[in-house]
Amino acid sequence: MLKKIGFTFLIIIVLFSLLGYRFFYSMNSLPDGELISETVSPDETYTMRIYLVNTHATVAYCIKGELVFNNSNTRKNIYWGYRESEAVVEWIDDDTVMINKRSIEVPGGKYDWRREN
């Protein structure tokens, strides 16, 4: 009986941890925003879309950067900047984008202010 209670408790902890990660920490569940700019990579493989996110709550403006793979129209969030309302985007080369002075290697790199420090 004690093993069943312990196992059930463990399952509940794992479930809450996964849900917490998914809804509060994963870059896949970032809120939508207003599209403010698009920039195409030099070799036209990627498009960087920048969104201004304003949840109209007690939270400051955020900038969300979405990388679009032009050959498949697949999208991936690679930038999440808090207390930012503007974005300066510059492609350094075919696989490196600079957003607000932060260099990101694409397609694998990302910047998320929640993971700093």
| Helical amount | 10-25%
Q: What shape does the CA trace take?
A: elongated
Q: How many discrete domains?
A: 2
Query: What percent of residues are in strands?
Result: 35-45%
Structure description:
By secondary structure, the protein is an alpha+beta fold. It folds into 2 domains: 1-30; 32-115, no CATH class. The protein is built from 1 helix and 8 strands, in the order H-E-E-E-E-E-E-E-E. It has one helix spanning 2-24, and strands at 34-40, 46-53, 62-69, 74-82, 89-93, 96-99, 102-105, 111-112. The strands form 2 sheets. It has a 5-stranded mixed beta sheet, with no helix packed on it. A 3-stranded antiparallel beta sheet has the order 5-6-7, with no helix packed on it. The radius of gyration is 18 Å and the shape is elongated. The mean pLDDT is 85.
Q: What's the arrangement of secondary structure elements?
A:
Layout (H helix, E strand, L loop, with lengths): L1 H23 L9 E7 L5 E8 L8 E8 L4 E9 L6 E5 L2 E4 L2 E4 L5 E2 L5
Parallel strand pairs: 4-8
Antiparallel strand pairs: 1-2, 2-3, 3-4, 5-6, 6-7
Would you kindly provide a brief summary of this structure?
The protein is α+β, with helices and mostly antiparallel strands and 117 residues long. It contains 1 helix and 8 strands, in the order αββββββββ.
Which descriptors would you attach to this protein?
single chain; 117 residues; alpha+beta; five-stranded mixed sheet; three-stranded antiparallel sheet; 1 helix; 20% helix
